[in-house]
Design goal:
By secondary structure, this protein is mainly α. The protein has one domain. Helices cover 83% and strands 0% of the residues. The longest helix has 52 residues. The radius of gyration is 25 Å and the shape is rod-shaped. It starts with a helix and ends with a helix.
Length: 77
């Protein structure tokens, strides 16, 4: 994602190999890069949400696992 941000600055300055200083090509390049960056941001957001869900799910599972271990050690009669 960082490379795409840097590339967007290069296109905006008119120093890109493909777009050059042609305003139409620069506009198209900026739009394409913005779409790619937005896609990466959405993917990162989804992964962030799943990371949180899995973290808290793991905490709950760990707690239940230890409660079950204590139950087995105390010896249910």
């Amino acid at each position: 994602m960082i490379y795409k941000n840097i590339q967007q600055f290069i296109v905006a300055e008119g120093n890109d190999e493909l777009a050059g200083s042609d305003p139409i090509k620069m506009d198209i390049g900026n739009k394409v890069l913005k779409e790619l960056i937005d896609k990466d941001v959405n993917t990162a957001h989804r992964l962030y949400l799943w990371q949180g869900r899995l973290f808290y799910g793991g905490m709950i599972f760990y707690f239940i696992w230890h409660l079950y271990g204590m139950y087995l050690v105390t010896g249910s009669e």
